[in-house]
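Translate structure to sequence.
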């Protein structure tokens, strides 16, 4: 794939082989300014900000993906196929659907069930199971254990809907009955793209609210647990 790509303005060599991917481009800016040394901006196309800097002397990039599978699908494809990115870690928020998962906990998405059509569009002769890279996952678990962070490992649900019509509200609970922990909107597409292009991917999510209890994090609480998520991601690259 030629660069610059249709959605990323970087020149070859400006994006590191490892990248963090928050949904929100302003979170990418925050991560670059607060967690990376010497960060330089490589993208502003569509205001989808991207930066490369250093973490413990290792080059690391961070870029927003937007919301939903088509959006992260486009950016992760161009990052892998255009810029040779090998390791992609989504750092996002998620809503708990399991009663065992509480706000502020971390969820490492071992697999991603989905209601989206993204993976089906690949035209495989059956259902593909989008899974995390095992090496990244085990390092994330090891780091969370060392730091005594509250975390869960398991399935998430990647949905196209943030606002569900009343008659669909029971569907999250049906997935919860199958052991699914939490709902978000991008992981299945990220894992499918990584599999297709032989890259490594993991979603590390912070629980921002609970469908079970109705609890929500405050802005201040989100900042604290958000920092845990970024530290885990940076430490395992
Ligand atoms: O916090 P981010 O990474 O954006 O992730 C979650 O938040 C957005 C919805 O508010 C969706 O993108 C969902 O997956
Ligand atoms: O409830 C939530 C919270 C974060 N992200 C989602 O997609 N849903």
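Result:
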């Amino acid at each position: 794939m030629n660069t610059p790509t249709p959605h990323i303005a970087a020149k070859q060599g400006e994006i590191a082989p490892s990248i963090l991917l928050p949904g929100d481009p302003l979170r990418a800016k925050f991560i670059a300014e607060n967690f990376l040394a010497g960060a330089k901006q490589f993208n502003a196309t569509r205001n989808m900000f991207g930066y490369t800097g250093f973490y413990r002397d290792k080059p690391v990039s961070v870029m927003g993906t937007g919301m939903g599978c088509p959006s992260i699908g486009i950016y992760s494809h161009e990052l892998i196929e255009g810029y040779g990115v090998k390791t992609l870690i989504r750092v996002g928020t998620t809503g708990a659907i399991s009663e065992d998962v509480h706000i502020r906990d971390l969820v490492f998405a071992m697999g991603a069930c989905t209601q989206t059509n993204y993976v089906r569009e690949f035209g495989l002769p059956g259902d593909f199971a989008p899974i995390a890279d095992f090496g990244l996952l085990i390092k994330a678990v090891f780091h969370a254990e060392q730091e005594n962070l509250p975390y869960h490992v398991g399935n998430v649900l990647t949905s196209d809907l943030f606002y569900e019509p009343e008659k669909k509200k029971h569907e999250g609970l049906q997935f919860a009955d199958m052991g699914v922990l939490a709902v978000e909107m991008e992981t299945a597409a990220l894992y499918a793209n990584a599999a297709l292009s032989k890259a490594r991917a993991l979603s590390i999510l912070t629980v921002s609210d609970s469908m079970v209890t109705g609890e929500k994090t405050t802005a201040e609480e989100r900042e604290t647990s958000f920092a845990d998520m970024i530290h885990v991601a940076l430490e395992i690259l």
